[in-house]
Design brief:
Elements: E1 5-10, E2 13-18, E3 21-28, H1 31-48, H2 60-80, H3 85-99, H4 105-115, H5 124-142
Helix pairs in contact: 2-3, 2-5, 3-5
Length: 144
């Protein structure tokens, strides 16, 4: 098994700690000694069943795409229920903020320019346009 480890110099010693589990750590005067001591701590914690190795069967890319797909579908369903312009504007803001984590900058620029950078008021037509855009982005980025 491979574990990600952080190695630092602190309080005159080299400290090695398991990434994400700060209480699984060891300190020594050299890097090699700290790593060896950490390995012993990890083996002990594995033996006690406190640490386990979890195999992701479908792969992280597949999980990410499924999560993004579900997220796009949730936004689309929420948008389809909107019946007034004020709520459309709030929903567009939510879509803008939420999709920035998933979409390339050029696609977000299209979204921003089409739905925010203009003088006229937001309408239900904007909701319909955004729903179409969201479906297109989901098709493109989720391999649906």
């Amino acid at each position: 098994m491979i574990f990600p480890v952080v190695v630092r110099f602190s309080d005159g010693q080299i400290q090695a700690a398991l990434v994400g589990v700060p209480d699984v750590s060891a300190a020594a005067s050299t890097r090699e000694q700290a790593l060896a001591a950490l390995e012993s701590v990890i083996v002990q914690r594995l033996g006690k069943g406190e640490l386990v190795a979890l195999e992701i069967r479908h792969g992280l890319e597949g999980a990410k795409k499924e999560g993004v797909k579900a997220f796009f579908q949730e936004l689309t369903e929420e948008g389809a229920k909107i019946k007034d312009a004020l709520t459309v504007k709030q929903w567009l803001t939510k879509v803008d903020i939420a999709t920035r984590a998933f979409l390339p900058e050029e696609e977000m620029n299209f979204f921003w320019n089409h739905f925010f950078n203009r003088k006229q008021a937001v309408t239900l037509d904007d909701r319909d346009g955004c729903l179409t855009w969201l479906k297109a982005m989901c098709l493109k980025h989720c391999d649906l």
